[in-house]
Amino acid sequence: MQRYNSVKLASLMLLMLAFVLLILVMTSCEKTITVPVQPYTPTLSIACMLVPGEVPTLFLSRSTGYFSTLTTARDLFVADASVVIRSAEGVTDVLKPTMGLDSFLCQPTYFYRGSLPTRQGQTYTLTVTANGQTYHAETTVNQAKPTINRADYVPLFKDIYGEHEGVVIDFTDTPGQANAYRFEMRRTVDSTVRTAGNKVYRSECNGARPFGVLEIGRSVYFDTGSGDGRPITITIEPAFTHRNGSPGQVFMQAMDPASARFFDQLDRQKLATYNPFVEPVFLKTNIPGCMGVFGHYVRSEPVPFVFPE
Amino acid sequence: MRYLLYSLLLTAFPALSQSLTLNGYVRDARTGEALIGAGITVPAQRVGATTNTYGFYSLTLKPADTVGVVVSFVGFAPQYLRLSSPVSQRLDVTLSENANALAEVVVSTRRTDENVRGTQMSVLTIPLSLVKTLPVLFGERDILKTVQTLPGVQAGQEGTTGFYVRGGNSDQNLVLLDEAPVYNPNHLFGWFSTFNTNALNRVTLIKGGFPAQYGGRLSSILDVTMREGNTKRFSGAAGVGLIASNLTLEGPLNGKSGQACGSFIVSGRRTYFDLLLKPFQPAAGQSNYTFFDLNAKINYRLGTRDRLFLSAFAGRDNAQYTGASSLNYGIRFGNATGTLRWNHLFGPKLFVNTALIANQYQLSLSTLQSGYVAQLYTGIRDLSAKTDWEFYPSPTHTVRWGAILTSHAFAPLATSAKLPKSGNLPPFPTDSITRQYTTEAALYINDDWAISERLTLTAGLRLPLFWNGATRYARLEPRLSTRYVLSPTSSLKASYTVMNQFLQLVPNATASLPTDIWLPSSGRVLPQMSQQIAVGWFHNSRDNAYEFSVEGYAKAMQHQVLFKEGTQLLTGSDIDHSLTFGRGYSIGLETYVRKATGRLTGWISYTLSRTMQQFDELNNGQAFPFAYDRRHNLAVVGSYELTPRWTVAGSFTLYTGRPYTLPVGRTQIGGGGTLYTDIYADYTSRNNARLRPYHRLDVSATHKRPKRWFGRPGTSEWVFSIYNLYSRLNPYFVYVTTDDITRQPIARQVSLLPIIPSVSYHITF
After folding, report:
1. If DSSP codes are grouped into helix, strand and coil, which group holds residue B215?
2. What region, left, alpha or beta, does residue A187 occupy, with left being phi > 0 and alpha being psi -120 to 50 degrees?
3. What is the average per-residue pLDDT within A260-274?
């Protein structure tokens, strides 16, 4: 009897320990920590893509420590810089700081805007002076205008971003030059619209008033992927939700390859940030001495598009 | 054939004809198990030998009227043999376990001083008897946990796989189980090793000064030898832990005459974690975990000169976990090995082992983290044939030579993408895997030469060859080790080795799970190569009860492999072109104090090291710390016999936190397009931050008493363990994210294992 009790006690003890063990193992712990702040020298961030027929817009901000409390666009905007774009013909455009409104996020945006439209075939030099430092960059607007052959809709397709609906664009690569393409769509929406991931929306400031959104595909398509002058078909997930019959206009951008590489690394870094199985991407600048890009793209003629569902 | 060989050897070593040779096997008197590394010395002639992996020795002596032979092995009573008018003869010796071996310090002839007298350096043998008393996780004894406490060895973080030796990656460790490579020696990401301690005879870690018979990896050899089984009587052992049970059966194999002509051992272990978990799971519960391993070995004597060994091992893990959002996975992996060996004695001085080896490793992993799914498959199948010759021409020379030929088949695949909206994992695209077939071979020769009583030299040369389609590599690997005896209790040693590695793991430094892919060398993926020099001072005191060593090393590694920044693997065929190549170096100082005998046994090891890597395409071409670079690494391991029945033990580890990459700045990139305008990370340096220091104390108490089982004498043993006694939540990994409301970037730390008590019960019969 005593032996039986001993076995029973040992079994009970084992069972209790097993229970404690399971509870402990199944509860991994996660908490916010303070990491030692590493010394960081803020640098200027410049983003300016010239588009033929449009006045230049330049985004100028200062980078900050990763865990800094400066989080808004206004916190980071550099308003006291000198920004000049000069053409090879000697025409000078002095860009002025201004602000706009991102109606979807209901927040102001800050940038510099010029007054002279960009011309195809011209070479432009950018000079930015801020805090006593001067930065130079140059681009020649020589990409050929792409032509969209067809814009269509597919309810379901798969890519590295998952399984989702898509806008299908057929176009032909311009032969004889290095090209890189991005998708662009313009639509008028209302405050019921959400991002495709259904995460970001603050468009309540618009009330019942419709407003425009611009979506630019994050992925960059290099013509080396299909071969010079070949037909290309790409499928893009729309960035915002839509209703049956929602109209829009789609474009293709043909970008200079150097700028395309810059935007491609942004895309890959973003992906690495989201996807824990991808190594982090260090950003490489196109403008010596600061972070940023100065280049151009040529936009196709618009093609009307209506969401069929 | 035999006479031809001898004629050649006698020509090479004329001293052979004027000497006498003793040879034979040294075995445990109780079980008949081979004693590996036993010492056979003739003090009057100041010569000696040690037994090889099969317990065989050969000792050539000067002719004498009488010869006194001492045969010794730690933990066993020595044998003193006096041979009158000796002639060359077979001399098999059995040693009995010394009941007082742990209770007192005894005279020097009873102790091995191999660490001082041996030429080889950077070698550590794991004391299996001590492993059985050390604290364990979930009640499972583990040799790899003990390996991780040795100097020069860095453990992976909790939940990560493998161990890292002298700045090398985990794939640079060649883990051999009865000569068969084991590609992944772990269960459940390193929480347990695949090695069942009940089935093991000897475990040796070599970190440098590699003898020429070893090759194929840059950083270490973990040589695990399975037991042969009890040749005297049928016996067994069993254990019940919190999550697994094990059973070992062994006994003699009798021939037609009724005499034992061999032995067998079968040892198995299986977890019942899945059964324990079941009551606590929701109906649609996804978490589950099972593993098993099975070891079996038969040895059979064909005569006095021939012996056959057949060993087999299989282990498999199957796990699914859907807990915290940062750690969801499904994984299946397993190893299987088989080795058929034939020992043949051509004569008293020439021992040959020939082996046929097959091994297989498969891993398929689906990991879901933050809405992204990664799928990985690694399959490797090796078929090998090898032969190793050992020739003992004189007391001053031991010559080894041999060859190995291996056929590898690889099937690597890795993809990662966002989880489909359906939430269903995509099917595993194993059909799309492109298999690769490669061949690896090596020839080697090695001579242990006692130049004088104080000075010895081991010189070897290995010629590895590798074929992958039209790509061929041939390398030369010189191996040199030397020892100079300063005094009877201390010596200086130095070594220089060159190693090449034709198979490599491509580690993903960011992922928190072992998303590692095995790849063979090719035209694009060059073989990894290392050169290592090491120097050391070795000292024993108190009749070899205490061993001290200080070793310094410097290692340079070429053609190291990492993924390019931002690599998004879509298909297996992308892997080669997603890689980038660089170099690394590691320097370190290792100190080791071990108390091998007495009631208190254990060791203290401390390693000061620095390991850096440099890749032209990573970190702007600047050098950066290796993923397992840890400046300080301290381990204190001890076991104390309180009474004949009670033993307490503890293990404390403290090391510098692992480096990881943290953005230092952030920059805003505008440019139109609501989704495009965003914050991007400004990384200034790779692996620029470190996890908090890791420290943990484990304790255990073991109660052992004699008990009869099934009418036979045996033992029963309770082991009570507490893992992480003070429940420190050591960092597992850190990731950055943004607060949804304030948009303030924050860092989040994930920890895994808090305090975990466990109990296990073991018997022998």
Report:
1. coil
2. beta
3. 85
Question: What pLDDT score does B436 carry?
Answer: 84
**Where does the pLDDT of residue A46 fall: very low under 50, low under 70, confident under 90, or very high at 90 and above?**
very high
Closest among B633, B623, B637, B622 to B657, alpha carbons compared: B633
Write the residue in A21, A160, A282 that is nearest to B756 by C-beta: A21
Taking alpha carbons only, the member of A151, A140, A149 closest to residue A178 is A140
Q: Per-residue DSSP letters for A220-254?
A: -EEGGGT-TT-EEEEEE--SB---TT-EEEEEEEE
How confident is the model at residue B510, as a pLDDT?
45
Q: Is A301:A60 a contact under the CB 8 Å cutoff?
A: no
> How much is the pLDDT for B325?
46
**Cβ neighbours, 10 Å, residue B130:** 19
- Residues of chain B short of pLDDT 50, as ranges, are 10, 15, 100-111, 284-285, 324-327, 509-514, 571-572
In whole angstroms, what is the distance from residue B552 CA to residue B533 CA? 8
Report how far residue B482's alpha carbon sits from residue B320's, in angstroms, rounded to the nearest whole number. 50
Q: Do A38 and B512 touch (CB under 8 A)?
A: no
Q: How far apart are CA B628 and CA A45, in angstroms?
A: 34
HEC string of B231-259 equals CCCCEEEEEECCCEEEEEEEEEEECCCCC
- Report the alpha-carbon distance of residue B714 to residue B707 in Å, rounded: 5
Q: How far apart are CA B48 and CA B456, in angstroms?
A: 13
d(CA B669, CA B676): 8
Which residue type is seen at B261?
Answer: C
Q: DSSP secondary-structure letter at B565?
A: T
- B597 CB neighbour count, 10 Å cutoff: 23
What pTM value is reported for the model? Answer: 0.83
* B519 beta partners: B504
- State how far the Cα of A49 lies from the Cα of A43, in Å rounded to an integer: 20
**Which amino acid is it at B167?**
G
CB contact under 8 A, B742 and A71: yes
pLDDT for A15 beyond 90: no
How far is A282 from A54, CA to CA, in rounded Å? Answer: 32
pLDDT digits (tens, 9 = 90+) for A290-303: 999 999 999 999 99
| Residue A91 reports pLDDT greater than 60 | yes
Answer yes or no: do B662 and A282 touch at CB < 8 A. Answer: no
Q: Are B306 and B56 in contact (CB under 8 A)?
A: no
User: Which of A28, A61, A282 is nearest residue B327 as measured by Cβ atoms?
Assistant: A28
Distance CA B675, CA B678 (A): 7
- pLDDT: which is higher, A126 or B148: A126
Decide: A296 and A58 in contact? Cβ < 8 Å: no
**Which has the closest alpha carbon to A46: B672, B684, B663, B668?**
B668
Q: Does A142 touch chain B (CB under 8 A)?
A: no
- Tokens representing B346 are 């051509």
> Is the Cβ of B753 closer than 8 Å to some Cβ of chain A?
yes
The region, left, alpha or beta by phi > 0 then psi within -120 to 50, assigned to residue B179 is left
A188-202, A259-273, A280-294, B541-555: the lowest-pLDDT one: A188-202
Q: Can you read off the two tokens belonging to residue B423?
A: 């939430």
Distances in whole angstroms, Cα of residue B318 to Cα of each of A175, B138, B504, B566 = 53, 18, 24, 30
Strands B477-487 and B471-474: unpaired
Query: Across chain A, what does the average pLDDT equal?
Result: 84
Q: Which of A47, A66, A109 sits opposite B681 (nearest CB)?
A: A66
Q: How far is CA B586 from the centre of its chain?
A: 20
Concatenating the DSSP letter of every residue in B446-495 gives EEEEE-SSSEEEEEEEEEEEEEETTEEEE--EEEEEEEEEEETTEEEEEE
Rounded CA-CA distance A170/B436 in Å is 37
